Amino acid sequence: MDSQIAFIVVIFSCVILFCIGLWKLFERAGQQGWKAIVPVYNIVIWLQLLGRPAWWVFLFFIPAINILIYLGMLVDTVRCFGKEKYMDQVLGMLFPSIYFIYLGYKKDTTYVGTINSIPKPKKSSSREWADAITFAVVAATLIRWLLLEAFVIPTPSMEKSLLVGDYLFVSKVNYGARTPKTPLQIPLTHQTIWGTRIPSYSTLIQLPQYRLPGLSSVKNNDVVVFNWPADQDYPVDLKTNYIKRCMGIAGDTLEVKSLQVYINGKPAPNPPKMQYRYFIRTDDILGKGFFRKHNITEFQPENNGYLAFITEEIAEELRGLSGIKSVIHIIRPKEDGEPRIFPNSSKFPWNEDFFGPLWIPKKGVTIKMTPDNIILYGSTIQNYEGWGDIQVNDDKIVIDGKPVIDYTFQQNYYFMMGDNRHNSLDSRYWGFVPEDHIVGKALFIWLSVDPDPNSVAGKIRWNRLFNIIK
To answer: Within 13 Å of residue 462, how many CA atoms lie on the same side as its CB?
Structure first.
């Protein structure tokens, strides 16, 4: 909460300074200074001084567009007051609150006219290149933040729905883009500078994070890109990106019984290309060509056969082949608890095939902090709810020095699973995905490159290009 108050104070101070600077610039241009502090009307007058159409004021109410218009007006203002140097325009765009005060109080500052009346200065080739590169970086950064971001599938956790080497576009518009938490980072990078292990960011400034309005909320069965919650090495917005299918949304009760997911007591739809773990029993030695022919990418030899991750359709196909004695679907028994499975407690001896029932936290809902609920939700409250002074023990939770009897969740959570159900480290292992970790919704594949060096298709999987992700 302290960081949010500090953030509000900083923003309010910047607005006050900006209005002071704009007041002086209005006076320099022959307008009454008080007009600079009247909401909406100040934008109309500002546009008039720049020589821009008055109807542009309506663009300030359109998300994303308003940012572009605002940045353009900042540069136009600097030029309308006679500053044509590249550095002046950069300072005016990046630090308008301070630069406008400097410009307004500078004795030789003169209003030279609207933007269309100013003769365009001849630019050197280096200036033209700098302008082009700056524009490209700013535009790409804004698009990546507000609209679309490219993402590549690095692991087989979503096979066969999504393949290793699939390049996707992820929509930020669907769920709403997040405001940056870590503003000091090199544009168009994530965690490190390209091709190196050098960090591309600084945590010197950490801002509260908010989400802009989106087209919808996360829904069951959406394929979602999110920041891996268990990654503690980076700030939230720079944690490692994961992609999974949302099987449970906030307020749902999820259970897995003999591989089948149930949501609120009803069987959830299964992805058509979902994979499981099978044992292929055979006395023959099967080469890579056999597995490639039957579209099997994950396999390893075992006694009297092979362990493979395949769809039920492929399993049926193999059962009809000579030399294949059996294709056995491997399901872990219910009583066989797995220590790695969330919540990592002997009190809940679940495994990847028999899991839950587990209620998914919902914003505004209050639960009793019973010993069982502390096991199930204590780590979530401690790690993702934003409390500074919090202690979680086996029998109690203490926040700001006070034991918590009832707890009300501060945000929504989601339960993510990979379509490759037996080869996916997902919410069954590390728990819920907080809403502030959601990056966007996967839309479509724009490129797919086969990482197999022996691929006959010449690396590019042409049949996957522009496939919509379902």
So the answer is: 3
Tell me the C-alpha distance between 273 and 270, whole Å.
Answer: 8
Residues 416, 245 contacting (CB under 8 angstroms): yes
The span from the CA of 91 to the CA of 86, in Å, is: 9
Q: Which of 470, 417, 3, 469 is nearest to 236 (CA)?
A: 3
- Residue predicted with more confidence, 69 or 156: 156
Instruction: Round to whole Å and give the CA distance between 275 and 271.
Output: 9
- Neighbour tally for 391: CB within 10 Å: 13
The 3 state secondary structure assigned to 374-387 is: HHHHHHHHHHHCCC
**CA 434 – CA 226 distance, rounded (Å):** 9
Burial of 316 (0-12, 13-18, 19+ CB in 10 A): exposed
| Distances from the Cα of 3 to the Cα of 12, 205, 222, 409, angstroms | 14, 11, 32, 19
Classify each residue of 108-129 as buried b or exposed e, where b means 16 or more C-beta atoms within 10 Å of its C-beta: ebebbbbbeeeeeeeeeeeeee
Which residues 6+ apart lie within 8 Å of 151 measured at CB? 167, 168, 169, 170, 225, 241, 243, 442
R_g (Cα) of the chain, nearest Å: 28
What is the rounded distance in angstroms from the CA atom of residue 338 to the CA atom of residue 346?
A: 9
List of domains in the chain: 2-121 (no CATH), 143-246+416-425+433-470 (2.10.109.10), 275-329 (3.30.70)
In this prediction, residue 133 carries a pLDDT of 77
411-461 pLDDT per residue, tens: 999 999 999 999 999 999 999 999 999 999 999 999 999 887 665 555 889
SS3 224: strand
Report the interhelical angle of 96-105 vs 86-94 (nearest 10°): 120
Residue 410 pLDDT greater than 80, yes or no: yes
State pLDDT tens for residues 440-454: 999 999 999 988 766
Mean predicted lDDT score pLDDT of the chain: 90
Residue 330 makes CB contacts below 8 A (sequence gap 6+) with 276, 277, 278, 279, 307, 422
Confidence of residue 3 (pLDDT cuts 50, 70, 90): very low
Closest CA to 121 of 150, 149, 85, 90: 85
- 175 falls in which pLDDT band (50, 70, 90)? very high
Model confidence at 254, pLDDT cuts 50, 70, 90, reads: very high
Residue type, 95: F
